[in-house]
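ok here's V-type ATP synthase beta chain:
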Amino acid sequence: MLKEYKSVSEVVGPLMLVEDVSGVDYEELVDIELQTGERRRGRVIEIDENNAVVQLFEGSSGINLKSTSVRFLGRPLELGVSEDMIGRTFDGLGRPIDDGPSIIPEEKRDVNGVAINPVSRDYPSEFIQTGVSTIDGLNTLVRGQKLPIFSGSGLPHNKFAAQIARQAKVLNDSEDFAVVFAAIGITFEEAQFFRQDFEKTGALDRSVMFINLADDPAIERLSTPKMALTAAEYLAFEKGMQVLVIMTDMTNYAEALREVSAARKEVPGRRGYPGYLYTDLATLYERAGKLKGKPGTITQIPILTMPENDITHPIPDLTGYITEGQIILSNELYNQGVNPPVSILPSLSRLKDKGIGEGKTREDHADTMNQIYAAYASGVDARELQKILGDSALSKADLAFAEFAKQFEEKYINQGFYTNRSIEDTLNLGWELLKIIPKSELKRIDDELIDKYLDKDENKKES
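and the structure:
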């Protein structure tokens, strides 16, 4: 039997202290009734002897300490899951906001979840095509991987996120693919952009959207990614689907975490963020992966804006430790009109070698990836010397590398937000650009592959 308490003694920001309670569990869901009859929800985040600290989902305005009653519901925050969620849009607490009917759940799941046990993990080894050359060709995304995108203020990460959600696919047509999209603390205009883009392009038909707006309570930001991952876990591990989870913006999630930590009067860590920021982020990121004996997978692309474009800031810094690489967006490329402005040299996918090659993408993928990266790095260096010393001071090879870097940015990186390239298109474009470089400088590609792909046009003419 549920007990009702009228012993609220203090409210600070989004937190409420309830005294003289018994039998209350951590993460237990709470029902709060105000003096006006209005009901709000919360969850238990701390228990100290007979006192419980409750985190409010809808904010604390209008609460009268003496007249407010509190019920502890004996269960955690849950999400009702069903395949009918695909094509629907929800708020940060899992309530439909698309004017559609309520979901009839096949089951209810605790949104807090758990990180995947390392013993149960299967090694990621299968390619996911995003249609973006800078990812597919050079920083390949693999099923079960966590590959974050590090952006900055003013950069078009929302358009980039929408492009990936719209274009991503697995190459095996017999497998079901779904996108779970979590928008955390975004503006109304941004939410409208995502909704309209998903509806107009048909991406919504295979997506589950969770949208938390900037003017929604900060506490709801903390539940939004958990709701998304709970839905993803159901679709992947119960329904056998290949699920891509895109979460933007994780910086807003971390800010909400800092706000709650400050209200709890906890000792702050770096830049005022709580000392458990690493652990908290890991509980989200480590829910991605591939399980032994299960056909479905969860792949994550968390997106975050780096405060002051500082990659050493705690949020990108800790995210980089937990995840398997990073895609970094560049202000310099964006100012040149290059979109999506992916900075190639500092970007990295640590699992890319596991998802490419014959039978997965194409036999020449690994060699061309290494050669293009090396050529672009040489081209960037040559271009800097060109600016200082002029063309006359550079060798023919250096001039070729400088030209390669220019063409590479204009044609390979700058594909726009609405161009969807297959992996074949990406690899063929890479070979086309490598023709700029003298064949003697292609030292990272096997000669057989050079004969097969670089000289194929010449071979056709001769025959």
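+1. The longest helix spans residues 365-389.
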